[in-house]
Amino acid sequence: MKIRHFLLLITILALPLRSYAQIDQSPEVGIIEHLGDTIPLDLKFVNEKSQPVTLRQLINKPTILSFVYFDCPGLCSPLLDGVGTVIQKSDLVLGKDYQVITISFNFRDTPEKAKEKKNRFIEKYSQGKGDGWIFLTTDSTTIFDITTKTGFITKAVGLDFVHPSAIIAISPQGKITRYLYGITYLPIDFKLAIAEANKEQSRPSIQKVLLLCYSYDDGTKKFGLDVIKIAGILIVFFILSFLFIYIIKPKKKQ
User: Fold this and answer.
1) Would you say residue 38 lies in a domain?
2) What's the CATH code of the domain at 97?
3) Does the residue 186 lie in any domain?
4) What whole-number distance in Å separates Cα of residue 35 and Cα of residue 171?
5) What is the pTM of this model?
6) What is the DSSP string of 86-121?
7) Is residue 226 included in any domain, yes or no?
């Protein structure tokens, strides 16, 4: 009887792990981590000042890389708000200890839009330290190259995109050292990611499950909490708790 219960437990545990593995390894939209890989530094972009630049010219210190598109109705602005908030809370100095590079993954976005978006967030969050937060646009081929190399997978839906929400720590040599998921970031995690990037140290992420809690609504063209997925996680938790308390855990002798 105990063996049967054990096999049942393994089967239940395997279901969410299998789903998670599919999301991590071959998602239609999501993140495939490339920790330790070096991003292509010679890719060409245009900054918010309409100047042509390469990542090699820009990345000379620990860098937080974020991907957005400027007309996004969902996660992009909250993500940038999250970056701005952690910039304010961190005791590290933007532009000196690290920098932030935001790249639009929509080839239709222009340097003018990049400038408008940058001004909004610089004024709100970084006390005018604009040189430390750089906004870039580029063509579709370059977008594909940089998102592929960083494992950031999006899907076009009309003029909008389904996309994940994460920021990526890059070392001064262009090495991917950490992924931070979601739209809010703890100052301690942010600072640690920058310190690791400065030392060229790659560290695995522990927050991937946060991606499972978001889905894209084709009707509203916005992201929201996926109630079904959250309910599924809770059901699995309660089933495992039941199995442990009433079946797996040895009964006390009377």
Assistant:
1) yes
2) 3.40.30.10
3) yes
4) 11
5) 0.73
6) HHHH-SSPBTTTBEEEEEE--TT--HHHHHHHHHHH
7) no
**CA proximity to 213, closest of 203, 227, 201:** 227
Tens-binned pLDDT, residue by residue, of the chain (254 aa): 444 554 444 444 444 444 343 334 446 889 999 999 999 999 999 999 999 999 999 999 999 999 999 999 888 999 999 999 999 999 999 999 999 999 999 999 999 999 999 998 888 886 656 689 999 999 999 999 999 999 999 998 888 888 999 999 999 999 999 999 999 999 999 999 999 999 999 887 765 544 433 444 545 544 454 444 555 556 666 677 766 676 665 555 54
4 is a domain residue: no
136 has which bridge partners? 47, 103
Number of domains observed in the structure of the chain: 1
Structure tokens at 151: 């494992």
| Domain limits for position 150 | 28-209
